[in-house]
Amino acid sequence: MDPAISKLVEEISDKPPRSKLEPHAEVIAALRRKRRTYREIAQFLQEHLAISAVPSTIHDFVRVRRRRGKRTADSGDEQPVPSRRGRASTATQNDVQQRIAALKRRTSPDQPQPLFTYEEDEPLKLQRKPPATRAD
């Protein structure tokens, strides 16, 4: 960036946070990590910090911060992939995609044979099962 422009940008003061919850983001995050509900967090903020906020406001605040964190995280393939239980695993997104592709390519040895054959101008025909081979 041009030095004159960067100097002008540095001279501009920062805007104050738009949310009254912003200064208390760490407290809210800590309470969420302790599995507190948004209603409990709202009560905590009211009792201890004299801040009135409804649970839906706190939910929206947390959701926006969570999205913002995902955007600023590295965009590489090394992001943890959440497991079924919500915990992050060490598998990368790329590994998961490769395993899914391999499963899709895999064919089952016991794929069912179609029961009927379809030809456009003829009625459905029942397929006869081939005789079972005996392994002696």
Q: Would you mind describing this structure in some detail?
A:
With 136 residues, the protein is mostly helical. It has a domain at 18-71. It contains five helices and four strands. Helix 3 crosses helix 4. The chain is elongated and about 80 Å long. Residues 74-78 have low confidence and may be disordered.
Q: Work out the radius of gyration.
A: 29 Å
Globally, the shape reads: elongated
Please tell me the overall pLDDT. Answer: 79
Number of helices: 5
Q: Tell me about the largest β-sheet.
A: 2 strands, antiparallel
Structural class: mainly alpha
The counted number of beta strands is: 4
- What separation lies between the terminal Cα atoms? 80 Å
Strand order of the largest sheet: 1-2
Task: Point out poorly predicted stretches.
Answer: 74-78
Q: Write the element-wise H/E pattern from the N-terminal end onward.
A: HHHHEEHEE
Task: Give a quick set of tags describing it.
136 residues; mainly alpha; two-stranded antiparallel ribbon; two-stranded antiparallel sheet; 5 helices; 6% strand; elongated
Would you kindly provide a brief summary of this structure?
This protein has helices at residues 3-11, 25-33, 38-49, 55-72, 93-105; strands at 81-82, 88-89, 116-117, 125-126. The chain has five helices and four strands, in the order ααααββαββ. The strands form two sheets. A two-stranded antiparallel ribbon has the order 1-2.
